[in-house]
């Protein structure tokens, strides 16, 4: 080697060292260095405030990865995250929940309103639903890590709530367990009766049909003392696959952490214990396919970001699939002699001694690869420069040196070719994965029918091609009542069987069936206008002819159907579907199992109702209601006895008969009920401050308000806050509150009685079974409807009224006669010994100020 060549080599060697030093600095900044306060693209935008309500305590095992995922999603977006802990695993009782409610309520009243709420795990979701109207009205809420899939999907029907479930990868875990334990014939789950445990139990038995050759059973720790639980574990035989899902309490009310439960279970069993959650793997449990809590938190945080950036909560579907990974304990695998070749290649193994390379594998591999590439580039550059300089200097190389360089280049080329082939295979994988994602995006997860988006695209293509078609919107009647009465598993089976029947009709290429959402289906019939007696429509009607069997009970379904035509009825996909929807809504008004064809008047009626609904929503936000009070008078003395509170709209000539019915179709009735209640209590405070003697006020309680589970607590808090006696409030109900809600209604009545509030049965005589209700509901008064007064409170017919008054008195009830407008009616009610009178004869509904001017007795 010449002198100049040696200098050149030294120069390149120094350059290589400097380059490697620079690479080390670069890698440090890329992999290790983090600014305490990274630059945010929203640094100068307004701060968004998000509250995270966790079901557990700060030390609970799953919480740190959840928070890490949320903070990763929020990074750089100028979001202030506050966290409140319910601690329901350690204190799973009503007292703890009430304390948390009081504490949170105080904080919410004294801090800036939150832009979004994150709900971690089942207890937080249930709490938020219970107190939504009171604490979180109008605030979007995103739940995650929910074990009860049915509860999560049902919660997602609320326009302010969405989120993701904590999918338990039980099928994958059991499939692998069967390979580990080929002699197994049983699959046993360990769970408890907490909210989490109830969700675990449902998920466990939901996969039973996927393993027909195995006997499924569960051990509920809440039903055993500690000793009894140990005995049950000891009875587990060697032919059992056992999965630990939850065990936070026992029969005696003792509470346990996950490490305590894991230690006890492992000590009392002689078979490997599987797990579909990270907590406990590495402490004696074998493991399984496990949900990623960090990715769950990241997903929930990402959904919140979408909402804060303008996405509508109602348009974001509940995510029912999560992120996962296999995770196993090396020591447990060895203890039970499990063949390591059966372990999935990408599984994480804990409790195994690692080499330095294995420990820092994730960091070293990219670093070494990067260094290798840089060194290859540097070597190629050196070789190329040396070659050119040697040519310039006319220095000859030996044949052996040239051959060695050539061989190196050949090897490099082969490596590049190999990398290309591997990349090509990866591309195929990506293409297959993309196809699957597209399929999921276009199909409904439950019924496997095309979803709304796919159906709308299909209809748009037909319209663009000017192909004639019939569009049908089909809704299952009373589906919500079926869900509430028989459970969501029954509801899901009805939806899936209905879908299967529609799929069988799709052998006729003219029919395209899809699921719009909830209990609604969209059908498209191509190339024809279907008349009422057409063969295909008759076949569609027949899908309800055969009952659907669930849990050995037959369910006869009825459907409401709206039909619209393209060309005659609409000019776009969205318009024709809207028209069919208008027709379906009209069919529901006619009863069940009705088929209605669209006409323009339906749209006008729907728009009118929508306009009123918008007015009501605005009124709820901006104090758009006021309350009038109609006096109730003692029939015998004419003395004022109390009032009925009646709601009115400010600035709109819309009668209560119109807007109450529309409010009852949505959650507006819940908000309105609380608004009226608060105004009544505040009016009573004003009367007291003005020196008036307080008398009972009757507040109407709509049958639809039964969905407001927190109303009684809300009323109780208002009474205590303003020091108003509970016996001054009378709640008026109607018999419609019992329709499909008997158990809920009786529980509601017990709650009212527990706080000292009286009940009255309104509109008595308008239903077919009011007398039957009087034998068991705890009302103190019945109100005779005005329609009966107009018909029967006349000479020769009033025996009917007299008999009702006698019936009420025999049952120990008072009776108020409504709608009394004439003196002879007043006199006759008094002669028949009715207790109270309400009507225009004494007074129309008046304002709170006018009430103060009333003289007693009222003439």
UniProtKB/TrEMBL annotation:
Molecular functions (GO terms): cyclic-guanylate-specific phosphodiesterase activity
Residues that span the membrane, as ranges: 12-32, 363-383
Protein name per UniProt: Diguanylate cyclase (GGDEF)-like protein
Keyword Glycoprotein: no
Lineage of the organism: Bacteria, Bacillati, Bacillota, Clostridia, Lachnospirales
SUPFAM superfamilies, sorted: EAL domain-like, Nucleotide cyclase
Domain of life of the native organism: Bacteria
Keyword Membrane: yes
Keyword tags: Membrane, Transmembrane, Transmembrane helix
GGDEF domain ranges (all copies): 467-600
Residue ranges annotated for the EAL domain, each copy included: 609-859
Signal peptide: none
């Amino acid at each position: 080697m010449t002198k100049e060549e040696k200098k050149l080599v030294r120069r390149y060697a120094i350059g290589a060292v400097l380059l490697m030093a620079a690479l080390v600095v670069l890698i440090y900044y890329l992999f290790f260095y983090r600014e305490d306060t990274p630059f945010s693209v929203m640094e100068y935008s307004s701060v968004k405030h998000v509250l995270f309500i966790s079901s557990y305590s700060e030390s609970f095992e799953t919480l740190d990865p959840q928070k890490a995922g949320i903070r990763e999603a929020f990074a750089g977006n100028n979001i202030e995250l506050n966290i409140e802990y319910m601690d329901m695993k350690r204190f799973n009782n009503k007292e703890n929940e009430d304390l948390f409610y009081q504490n949170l309520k105080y904080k919410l009243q004294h801090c800036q309103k939150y832009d979004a709420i994150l709900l971690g795990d089942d207890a937080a979701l249930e709490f938020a639903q219970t107190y939504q109207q009171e604490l979180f009205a109008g605030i979007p809420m995103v739940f995650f890590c929910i074990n009860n899939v049915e509860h999560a999907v049902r919660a997602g029907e609320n326009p302010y709530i969405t989120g993701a479930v904590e999918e338990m990868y039980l099928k994958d875990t059991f499939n692998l367990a069967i390979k580990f334990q080929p002699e197994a014939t049983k699959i046993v789950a360990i769970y408890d009766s907490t909210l989490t445990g109830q969700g675990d139990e449902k998920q466990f038995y939901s996969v039973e049909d996927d393993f027909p050759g195995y006997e499924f059973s569960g051990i509920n720790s809440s039903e055993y003392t500690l000793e009894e639980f140990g005995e049950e574990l000891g009875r587990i035989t060697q032919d059992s696959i056992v999965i630990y899902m939850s065990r936070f309490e026992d029969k005696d009310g003792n509470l346990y952490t996950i490490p305590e439960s894991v230690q006890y279970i492992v000590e009392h069993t002689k078979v490997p214990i599987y797990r579909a959650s990270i907590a406990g793997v590495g402490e004696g449990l074998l493991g399984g396919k496990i949900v990623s809590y960090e990715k769950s938190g990241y997903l929930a945080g990402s959904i919140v970001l979408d909402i804060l950036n303008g996405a509508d909560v109602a348009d974001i579907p509940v995510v029912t699939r999560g992120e996962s990974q296999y995770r196993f304990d090396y020591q447990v695998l060895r203890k039970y002699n499990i063949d390591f070749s059966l372990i999935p290649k990408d599984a994480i193994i804990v409790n195994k001694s690692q080499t330095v390379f294995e420990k820092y594998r994730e960091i070293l591999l990219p670093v070494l690869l990067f260094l290798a590439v840089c060194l290859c580039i540097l070597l190629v550059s050196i070789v190329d420069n040396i070659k050119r300089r040697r040519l310039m200097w006319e220095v000859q190389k030996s044949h052996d040196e040239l051959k060695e360089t050539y061989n190196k280049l050949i090897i490099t080329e082969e490596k590049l070719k190999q990398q290309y082939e591997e990349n090509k295979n990866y591309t195929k994988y990506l293409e297959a994965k993309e196809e699957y994602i597209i399929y999921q995006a276009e199909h409904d997860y439950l019924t496997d029918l095309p979803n709304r988006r796919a159906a709308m695209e299909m209809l748009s293509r037909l319209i663009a091609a000017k192909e004639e078609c019939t569009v049908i919107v089909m809704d299952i009647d009373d589906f919500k009542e079926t869900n509430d009465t028989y459970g969501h598993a029954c509801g899901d089976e009805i939806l899936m069987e209905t879908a299967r029947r529609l799929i069988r009709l799709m052998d006729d290429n003219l029919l395209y069936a899809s699921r719009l959402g909830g209990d609604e289906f969209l059908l498209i019939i191509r190339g024809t206008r279907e008349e009422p007696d057409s063969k295909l429509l008759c076949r569609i009607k027949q899908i309800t002819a055969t009952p659907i069997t669930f849990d050995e009970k037959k369910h006869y379904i009825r459907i409401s159907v709206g039909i619209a035509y393209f060309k005659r009825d609409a000019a776009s996909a969205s318009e024709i579907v809207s028209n069919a929807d208008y027709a379906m809504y009209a069919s529901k008004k006619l009863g069940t199992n009705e088929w209605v064809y669209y006409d323009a008047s339906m749209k006008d009626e729907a728009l009118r109702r929508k306009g009123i609904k918008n007015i009501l929503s605005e009124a709820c936000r901006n104090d758009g209601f006021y309350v009038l009070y109609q006096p109730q008078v003692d029939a015998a003395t004419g003395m004022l006895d109390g009032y009925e509170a009646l709601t009115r709209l400010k600035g709109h000539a819309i009668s209560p008969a119109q807007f109450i019915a529309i409010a009852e179709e949505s959650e507006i009735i819940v908000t309105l009920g609380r608004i009226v209640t608060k105004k009544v209590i505040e009016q009573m405070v004003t009367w007291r401050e003005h020196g008036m003697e307080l008398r009972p006020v009757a507040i109407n309680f709509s049958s639809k308000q039964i969905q407001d589970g927190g109303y009684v607590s809300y009323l109780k808090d208002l009474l205590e806050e303003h020091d108003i006696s509970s016996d001054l409030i009378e709640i008026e109900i109607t018999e419609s509150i019992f329709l499909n809600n008997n158990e809920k209604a009786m529980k509601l009545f017990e709650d009212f009685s527990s706080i000292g509030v009286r009940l009255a049965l309104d509109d008595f005589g308008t239903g077919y079974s009011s007398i039957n209700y009087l034998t068991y509901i705890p009302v103190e008064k019945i109100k005779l409807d005005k329609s009966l007064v107009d018909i029967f409170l006349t000479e020769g017919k009033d025996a009917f009224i007299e008999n009702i008054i006698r019936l009420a008195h025999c049952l120990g009830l008072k009776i108020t006669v409504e709608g009394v407008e004439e003196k002879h009616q007043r006199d006759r009610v008094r002669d028949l010994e009715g207790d109270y009178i309400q009507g225009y004869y004494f007074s129309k509904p008046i304002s709170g100020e006018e009430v103060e001017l009333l003289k007693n007795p009222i003439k």
